[in-house]
Design goal:
Layout: H1 2-41, H2 45-48, H3 61-71, H4 74-105, H5 111-121, H6 130-140, H7 147-150, H8 157-170, H9 173-181, H10 186-197, H11 199-215, H12 218-223, H13 232-235, H14 247-278
Helix pairs in contact: 1-14, 3-14, 4-8, 4-11, 5-8, 9-10, 11-14
Length: about 280
C-alpha cells in the first residue's frame, strides 16, 4: 500500500514537473521576441547585420533613442496615444458595463433581438466600416481631431458581450431585486451594487481595450494627418522614411512605445488573472 502511494506521488510529481517545464519553455518563447527587440535597440546597425546576430544587449540604448527623438516627436505622440487610449478605455468600461447590466438584469421588449444584433456586429471586419466612418468624420469636420478616434471607439460589441456574461453569472439576481425593493433606481443598482462586484471584469476588458487602441494604426493614420496629433503607432512610421533603414533606431522607438503596455498590464494583472480564474464567462 505504501509502495503504491509512493509510486503515485512520483507520477504526480513527474507530471507536475513536466507541466512547469512546458510553462517555462512557453514563457521564454513568448518573451524572446521582446528581448531580442531590446537587444536590437541597444546595437548599431552594422552590429545587427553581423552573422551570427548578437543576442546580448549592447551600449547604444541611449544613442538610438536620441536618434528616435531627432526624427519624431516621441513624447508628444506618446502623450497623444495615452490620452486617446485612456479616454476610450474609460468610455468602453462605463458604456459597455451599463449595456451589459441592462442585457443581463433588466427586462424590456426586444432584448434578445438587440443582443443578437450586437453579436452579429462582431462578425463584420472593421475594415468594411472604414469608408462610411471616414465619410461621417469628414462631414462632422473631425479630421485631425482626437474625437475622430475617441467617439467611434467608445462602445464595442465584445465589451458588451463580456460584461453581459460576467454580470449575468457574477451578480446574483436576488441582490438586484432586494435593492429595487429598497427603492434603488436602475442606475443606482448598477453604480452602487454591480460596479463594485465586477472589478475583475473591468480590469480584463480595460487591458484588452487599452492594448487594442494603443496598437491601432489603420484608423488613426486615416483621420490624423497633422503630425501634432499623431498617435505613437502613426508617428513611428516616420522612422521608416529614411533612405537607409536604421534598425537600431526603429527597434528603440518600438521598444519604448511598448513599455506603457507592460506597465498597464503589471498594474492590473492581479485582477486580470482573478477574472479569468473565476470562470465567470460561461456559455
Amino acid at each position: 500500500m505504501k509502495k503504491n502511494k509512493e509510486v503515485g506521488l512520483k507520477k504526480f510529481s513527474m507530471k507536475k514537473a513536466l507541466v512547469y517545464l512546458f510553462l517555462v519553455i512557453g514563457s521564454l518563447a513568448s518573451l524572446f521576441p521582446f528581448y531580442y527587440m531590446f537587444v536590437m535597440a541597444t546595437r548599431l546597425n552594422r552590429e545587427i547585420n553581423d552573422v551570427p546576430p548578437p543576442f546580448i544587449p549592447g551600449s547604444e540604448l541611449i544613442g538610438n533613442f536620441k536618434k528616435v527623438m531627432s526624427n519624431m516627436d516621441f513624447f508628444g505622440a506618446l502623450g497623444n496615444s495615452l490620452f486617446v487610449s485612456v479616454a476610450i478605455t474609460f468610455g468602453v468600461l462605463f458604456l459597455c458595463s451599463l449595456a451589459g447590466f441592462a442585457f443581463s438584469k433588466l427586462q424590456f421588449k426586444g432584448k434578445k433581438l438587440l443582443f443578437a444584433l450586437v453579436l452579429l456586429t462582431m462578425m463584420v471586419p472593421p475594415q468594411l466600416g472604414l469608408i462610411p466612418q471616414y465619410y461621417i468624420i469628414t462631414t462632422l469636420g473631425w479630421l485631425n481631431d482626437f474625437r475622430a478616434i475617441i467617439v467611434p471607439g467608445l462602445v464595442n460589441a465584445f465589451g458588451i458581450f463580456w460584461m453581459r456574461q460576467y454580470i449575468k453569472e457574477g451578480v446574483p439576481f436576488e441582490i438586484v431585486e432586494a435593492a429595487k425593493i429598497d427603492g434603488c433606481s436602475n442606475f443606482r443598482v448598477y453604480w452602487n451594487i454591480v460596479v463594485p462586484m465586477i472589478l475583475p471584469a473591468f480590469a480584463t476588458l480595460g487591458i484588452i481595450v487599452f492594448m487594442q487602441v494603443w496598437n491601432d494604426f489603420l484608423w488613426p493614420v486615416t483621420v490624423l494627418r497633422d503630425p501634432a496629433v499623431h498617435t505613437i503607432q502613426v508617428a513611428l512610421r516616420a522612422l521608416n522614411d529614411a533612405r537607409q533603414l536604421d534598425y537600431g533606431m526603429i527597434m528603440s522607438g518600438t521598444f519604448w512605445a511598448t513599455v506603457p503596455l507592460l506597465i498597464v498590464f503589471l498594474l492590473f494583472n492581479r485582477l486580470f488573472i482573478q477574472s479569468l480564474s473565476e470562470g465567470a464567462v460561461k456559455s
